Amino acid sequence: MIRDLSGIVVACPDEFIMITPAFELSQDPDFLTITISVPYARVSEFDIYFEGKDFKFYAKPYFLRLTLPGRIVEDGREKASYNVDKGVFTVQLPKETPGQYFDGLDMLTALLAQKKARSVKPLVEEIGTSAELAEEEEEEEEFDWEIEQTPYDQSTESTSPLQCCYGFGNLKSGVFRRLQDELSDVIDVKDPDLTPAAERRQKRLETEVAKFDSDHYLADLFEDEVIQHVLKYKPWWVDAYAKKMASQGKSNQEHVSQTSFVSLSEDEKDQLRKFTNTSYLLDKRAHHQVYFSLIDILLAYCYEICINEGDKNVESAWNIRKLSATLCWFESFTSIPEILVSFGRRVLCYPLYRHFRLVTRAFSDTAMILQLGKSAVLKCLLDIHKIFRENDPAYILNDLYITDYCIWIQKIKSKKLAALAESLQKAKLTKAHLGFELEELESAALLVQEEESELKAASAVSKQQPPSSELETSDSEESSSTSSSETESSDSDEQEPSTSEDGEINSLQDALQEQRRAPLIDWNGLGRDTDSLTLDVSNEKSKASLRSTSVPGKLIEELGKKMQTAIRLSEQPEELATASYTALQEKGANYAVEPQRLSEDPNEKENFLEVSPTKSLLLFVGSTDED
Does the pLDDT value for residue 400 go beyond 50? Predict the structure, then answer.
């Protein structure tokens, strides 16, 4: 292989392959430090060349060529060292202007010099280097992000199928003619190559209206424990943004804060080195669409990170592409409000958790990422690229959008992202903007909820009240107690009647006592102890007083008939039946005569307890062993 110090390869064997090594760049006020990993390299033969913004390094089989963001100079202060154990070259190069800040040192793909065109005469020639173009872009006047633009209507012209474009900057077409099998698993539009942008938007809106489920939305609205939990999660950009805000105001730290709080992992750096450095020729209209689609993709990514709390699962790729109308419908937005409405509608139609607060949370997270600068945006895009790369067939979206975004974002200025973030923060989105009549739906649900609460409260009160039968029983008890108290009061008023009534009561009580002492014989011929005969006479006094009142005689007779005599008979031993036969025969006459005496009334008034004097006792003689 023949080469010179300029790094231009003059001749190279066909079997020899040049390897781009892993590298990192860092800086201090006076030096730019380049760290190059070259394991198993032939360190006895290596070359380093640098001048102005060019840097070249060669150590077989590694070759690195960089276009630096600032100028360096060779003045004798440059240093180089090699760590044999780690296989790492470290080169320190003096800055031409001490104290100058080199922006974009972590944009590794942009630092790699662009490959030369192989054609003799390129169809499109780009004047100036990428760094010069970046400077010209920075000098361009700022444009208003809120300006309303009129979408291009492709139906006004006769277009061929290949003119229905999509992808990054609408630079691609005809892709899905070769990928019909994977079409339905990646996007929702049926035939993107033959469907104009206006028709895609109309079909998207109709599909969202058909997909919206009011029951699912209300369930997440009123049963939001899981949603409240995921809203507490803080992704990495929250802490980075807080540190950036805290560092503002310190002298000469504004530039450093744009990169020091966001770092790329080794896998992310390795992926950047694999990208091919490409320049994109975009007009002003396409330039705006690229920025707007970037917001749409970041919103979907922020939602995915929030609900899964930073973890990845098999649904991660589906969530991102489904929530982004850019990825799912190849939508071309013309303003920030259009992006917010589209994202809000899709959040309430497709994912598992459908809550408006998840929409607003994604807005704030996206604004933080944009304010952190292109390093934070690049880190998010690399994460999306990895998710799609590991999902089949979502990898097609990397070829259409994400890979180009990862390369393009490294060449833009962070201040434009900050202006975009400011416009996003000023934008307002309400539930009425989404077109699903959410406010009316929530009001109706609240009314139903209030009615159910009232019914539950009424049922709880009815359970605490006693049944109607218990109420009737208590009422009857109260009425009986009232009548009893009235009877007692009437008794107390009538305690001074004639002595004849008291004598009658006393005679009635004497007769009852004699009845208690009289023995009885049951149908089994067993003698009963007279002491077991019980007669309830507790109300005799009140009944006697009632007889002296003016109550009609029929009522007194009914009350007298209702009086019951409770007789409790206790058994005697069988062997006592014969012994008591004579005593029972003697007392039987008394038992038949005694009621006659009870029925006699000197005042010719009826008694309540009246037994017929002709009633005779049936005596049964108990059998003995001799019989």
Answer: yes
